[in-house]
């Protein structure tokens, strides 16, 4: 074992940081010594699990000894030792002097300031409804994903939810599945997390909160010192990836359908590192380290940084490099693209070893309608039951059925947040008009409370109109479910037409008091989904490419996002505590949106591919999903993307390779392989990244023979961020189909680029590799990205599609 340590470099590479920018007290420190995983994956050192455990202990106590010898007692707290993927620690320091000491210490490779992480859920779906529409039941639901463990770095899990009940899975006495015996997760017990929570469906559950505690943001009463999900986000993502099959979605007494994870037979390992308030990278890094040590097959991260991290390159921050080591260990990494769309380069998931997931709106809509006594009718939203029978009920403005001399103020009356001012005899049997005011925007008022008030005062229902000053762009809480009839008239025209009707019909005395409520209406059922049959559309909030090399947003030769899945208005499991989202408090299911929701769809599909092809590498599985993705609908029309104000045909910067097609992804015909060493070569070609920055970030330097371009990485896409003259791009495809197949290569050239490819026809046998040589030649300066594709059509019906994105610049460095 000792000989290994001679490999260790004794030079100290320290990240420099701007000391007056320091706000966080927590830092992640990487050491020069190697982490445990190095010895598991290096051919020469295939250590046993015990060897790795011994090494882990030694690394951890080594950190303690190092710190004790270097720093004054009481001047720091070590939060974590990272031992598996990284050799380093997270430390909470009390002064800059401590940092300086660390900076100058021998054995320290790099120091990174901790940064905040966010959940990628959004509460502002553009049109309400429109969930996945399908919870595909692939390959016999219950066993789909069998033997695969999906790890989720998220807000924890609600173990009491039916989506996670034990459906008599084969487990041994430790609650660990036997079929996939390589998984060795632990189950922490604590608040709302009894020993029985790990039931064979949930096979591991731990939580990581030390940085959140150090920051003073963790509140035990609210956030629970256990893997229990007090937010809802983690239960939602876990059930989307691997929730049980055919679980009735019941919210406020109504069955909205049945939910099923993408891989109902897969097992769930929970690593809670995010909270209602968000979280910290150093907790997330600890969670990832543990998950890979536990040997999950797949990691799903519906989280990311709030902006591009500072530093030499977006690919070299601690989390990105750690995830590179995770792929080296064979773990598939999926991450939400971010919710910064539709502006370009809003992507928050950067590296080519990560599969970044975009979100789509699909064809399900929830539309509610109101019919007025005048014969007019309007549509709006509201997951609410209808008014009784075909009866028209009198309607009344809140202000007209309230005490006028109460001290609750006019606004509160309008927004129906308080039962007190309402006059019981006047409200009974009426539909009450309430107004969506700025209080709703500032979250001091909520639509859920409107429904609550209406129920308590015994009115027939509510009509929520828009305040012209607020407008109707982002209405908060429209995806909450209600027990009382109600409609949200989420457009100004409908709102003002309703008021016109009410004012013209209502008879008032000379003092202005209503003497007769003669305006009437009935509200229809808003809980019935409508399926439009429309193709998926890229959601406006879904973060867009091009990918960026750094915080200066210099664009990279990497395609981001990679793939798209449903993300808007997804029904899935929730946690009734719902600390992060007051609109859905108390519910077991929630309809929410975001790239957070799209990501576990892809993680689940990956489990099905992994089950079918256990030996495929992470890069091969990503390649399989990308090359088979749909870019057109059933009629051959292109998939569209929501931009700021219109729809336009989606580009690879909107949806990557396209919308996931799980049945085709299982049988892709050809795959693009990439190894760890290729990623190092990639990093060494990133503009502004030198040998030393790679060495600092990864502990290994660049090869002597360097690749010229990042576009040389063998991915299932070709992105050239600045084409001047011509560029040669090599791609190697490996046949994974059965028997021999002949492929024909077709290119659709991007505007301003001529592409030649050879060979144009090739024959492959199983496992054979074919080298494709592409030459991209600029023919016209576009000063904009233009898009094309390479399509390989096999004689056995495989279609392998490779998106091409090129920017023809006028000169180098432009
Ligand atoms: C799961 O359910 C089966 C059948 O009901 C039972 O035999 C098994 O002990 C359960 N497993 C756990 C870990 O509770
Ligand atoms: C912690 O959370 C509880 C419950 O939400 C709250 O009542 C309490 O004030 C919080 N404590 C602190 C210190 O913020
Ligand atoms: C997936 O691909 C198959 C085969 O080309 C096609 O029939 C199907 O419509 C595609 N889409 C989905 C969602 O399965
Ligand atoms: C595939 O092609 C090789 C030669 O290119 C041939 O030897 C082999 O028999 C073929 N296999 C099948 C299943 O046709």
TrEMBL record:
Signal peptide: 1-24
Gene3D superfamilies: 2.60.40.2310, 3.50.30.30, Peptidase S8/S53 domain (3.40.50.200)
Segments forming domain Subtilisin-like protease fibronectin type-III: 712-806
Annotated GO MF terms: serine-type endopeptidase activity
Active-site residues, record numbering mapped to chain: 154, 233, 596
PROSITE patterns reported in the protein's UniProt record: SUBTILASE (PS51892), SUBTILASE_ASP (PS00136), SUBTILASE_SER (PS00138)
Highest taxon of the lineage: Eukaryota
Domain Peptidase S8/S53: start-end pairs: 145-644
InterPro entries cross-referenced by the UniProt entry: Peptidase_S8/S53_dom, Peptidase_S8/S53_dom_sf, Peptidase_S8_Asp-AS, Peptidase_S8_Ser-AS, Peptidase_S8_subtilisin-rel, Peptidases_S8_3, S8pro/Inhibitor_I9, SBT
Glycoprotein recorded as keyword: yes
Residue intervals of the Inhibitor I9 domain: 55-118
UniProt record similarity statement: Belongs to the peptidase S8 family.
UniProt-recorded name of the protein: Subtilisin-like protease fibronectin type-III domain-containing protein
Source organism of the structure: Nyssa sinensis
């Amino acid at each position: 074992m000792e000989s290994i340590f001679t490999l260790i470099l004794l030079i100290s590479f320290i990240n420099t940081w701007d000391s007056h920018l320091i706000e966080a007290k927590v830092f992640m420190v990487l050491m020069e010594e190697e982490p445990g995983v190095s010895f598991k994956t290096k051919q020469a050192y295939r250590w046993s699990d015990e060897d790795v455990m011994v090494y882990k202990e030694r690394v951890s106590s080594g950190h303690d000894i190092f710190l004790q010898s270097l720093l004054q007692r009481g001047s720091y707290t070590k939060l974590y030792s990272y031992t598996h993927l990284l050799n380093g620690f997270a430390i909470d320091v009390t002064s800059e002097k401590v940092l300086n000491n660390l900076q100058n210490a021998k054995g320290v490779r790099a120091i990174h300031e901790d940064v905040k992480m966010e959940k990628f859920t959004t509460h502002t779906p553009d049109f309400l409804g429109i969930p996945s529409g399908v919870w595909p039941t692939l390959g016999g639901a219950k066993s789909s994903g069998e033997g695969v463990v999906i790890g989720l770095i998220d807000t924890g899990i609600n173990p009491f939810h039916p989506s996670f009940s034990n459906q008599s899975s084969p487990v041994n006495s430790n609650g660990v599945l036997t079929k996939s015996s390589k998984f060795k997760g632990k189950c922490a017990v604590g608040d709302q997390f009894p020993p029985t929570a790990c039931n064979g469906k949930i096979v591991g559950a731990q939580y990581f909160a030390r940085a959140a505690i150090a920051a003073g943001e963790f509140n035990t009463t609210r956030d629970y010192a256990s893997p229990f999900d007090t937010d809802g986000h983690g239960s939602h993502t876990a059930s989307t990836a691997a929730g049980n099959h055919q679980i009735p979605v019941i919210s406020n007494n109504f069955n909205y359908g049945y939910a099923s994870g993408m891989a109902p037979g897969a097992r769930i390992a929970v690593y809670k590192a995010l909270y209602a308030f968000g979280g910290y990278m150093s907790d997330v890094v600890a969670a990832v380290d543990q998950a890979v040590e536990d040997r999950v097959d797949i990691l799903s991260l519906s989280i990311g940084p709030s902006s591009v991290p500072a530093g030499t390159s977006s690919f070299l921050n601690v989390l990105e490099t750690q995830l590179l080591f995770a792929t080296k260990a064979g773990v598939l990494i999926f991450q939400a693209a971010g919710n910064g769309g539709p502006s370009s380069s809003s992507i928050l998931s950067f590296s080519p070893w990560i599969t970044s997931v975009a979100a789509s709106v699909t064809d399900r809509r929830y539309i509610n309608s109101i019919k007025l006594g005048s014969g007019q009718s309007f549509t709006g939203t509201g997951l609410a039951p209808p008014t009784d029978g075909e009866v028209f009920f009198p309607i009344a403005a809140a202000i007209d059925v309230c005490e006028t001399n109460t001290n609750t103020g006019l606004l509160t009356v309008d927004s129906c947040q308080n039962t007190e001012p309402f006059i019981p005899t006047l409200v009974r049997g009426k539909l009450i008009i309430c107004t969506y005011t700025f209080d709703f925007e500032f979250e001091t008022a909520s639509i859920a409370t409107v429904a609550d008030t209406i129920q308590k005062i015994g009115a027939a229902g509510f009509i929520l109109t828009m305040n012209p000053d607020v407008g109707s762009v982002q209405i908060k809480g429209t995806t909450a479910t209600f027990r009382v009839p109600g409609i949200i008239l989420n457009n100004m025209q409908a709102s003002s037409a309703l008021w016109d009707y009410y004012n013209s019909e209502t008879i008032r005395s000379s003092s202005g008091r209503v003497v007769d409520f003669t305006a009437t209406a009935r509200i229809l059922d808003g809980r019935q989904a409508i399926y439009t049959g429309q193709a998926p559309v890229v959601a406006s909030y879904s973060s867009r490419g091009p990918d960026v090399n750094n915080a200066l947003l210099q664009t990279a030769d990497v395609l981001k996002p990679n793939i798209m899945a449903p993300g808007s208005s997804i029904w899935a499991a929730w946690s009734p505590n719902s600390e992060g989202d007051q609109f859905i408090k108390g519910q077991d299911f929630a309809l929410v949106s975001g790239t957070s929701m799209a990501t576990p769809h892809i993680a689940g599909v990956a489990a099905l591919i992994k089950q079918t092809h256990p030996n495929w590498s992470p890069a091969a599985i990503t390649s399989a999903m990308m090359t088979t993705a749909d870019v057109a609908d059933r009629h051959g029309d292109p998939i569209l993307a929501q931009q700021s104000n219109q729809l336009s045909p989606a580009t690879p910067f909107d949806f990557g390779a396209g919308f996931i097609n799980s049945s085709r992804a299982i049988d892709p015909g050809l795959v693009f392989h990439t190894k760890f060493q290729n990623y190092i070569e990639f990093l060494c070609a990133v503009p502004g990244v030198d040998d030393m920055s790679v060495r600092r970030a990864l502990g290994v330097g660049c090869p002597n023979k360097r690749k010229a371009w990042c576009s040389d990485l063998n991915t299932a896409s070709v992105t050239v961020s600045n084409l001047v003259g011509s560029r040669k791009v090599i791609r190697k495809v490996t046949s994974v189909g059965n028997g021999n197949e002949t492929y024909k290569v077709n290119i659709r050239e991007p505007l301003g680029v001529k592409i030649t490819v050879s060979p144009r026809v090739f024959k492959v046998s199983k496992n054979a590799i074919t080298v494709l040589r592409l030459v991209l030649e600029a023919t016209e300066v576009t000063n904009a990205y233009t898009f094309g594709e390479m399509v390989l059509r096999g004689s056995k019906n495989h279609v392998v599609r490779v998106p091409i994105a090129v920017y023809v610049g006028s000169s180098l460095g432009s």
